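Have a think about this chain, tokens included, and walk me through the fold.
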Amino acid sequence: MDLILGRFADAHIGELSDAELDDYERLIEEPDPDLLNWVTGASVTPATYDTAMFRRLRDFHLGAK
């Protein structure tokens, strides 16, 4: 997860709003296996974490534009 989260942070951290940073911090506090499964689609993302920030992170990881 360090590679996924770190690459996203390197690319976007400077442009995130305070609210987006809060969402990002909440995501990185989740256990790595859970977050990895959500990002890769191996398991359904709980509604409380299926935020615009999560989708942005997931899309970045999956190479979506």
